[in-house]
Amino acid sequence: MGGPNLEVFKFSIYVFFPVAMMLYYGDPDWYNRHVVSYKDRIFPPNERLVTKLPTDQGALREELAKIRARKLEQRAERERMEAAQREKGA
User: Fold this and answer.
1) Left (φ > 0), alpha (ψ -120 to 50) or beta: where does 43 sit?
2) Of the residues 27, 51, 53, 62, which has the fewest C-beta atoms closer than 10 A?
3) Euclidean distance between the first and final Cα of the chain, in Å?
């Protein structure tokens, strides 16, 4: 079929391709530029992580009230921005 030269070529691809990918993607500089910056966009910052969960009903209601207030504030801000853009565009 292909002969020994083809087998040597296939073997070299099988061995060197993973090694080349490991060298390229395993570079710490590449990792810091691509993975760490993307990770920061996907996962929330540590200060937003909740480490102490509410255990009683009163604490749970307070936490829900905080979340609702934050969402209302964000909605109001978004509506102000949209109104400013409509005013600017008109």
Assistant:
1) beta
2) 51
3) 72
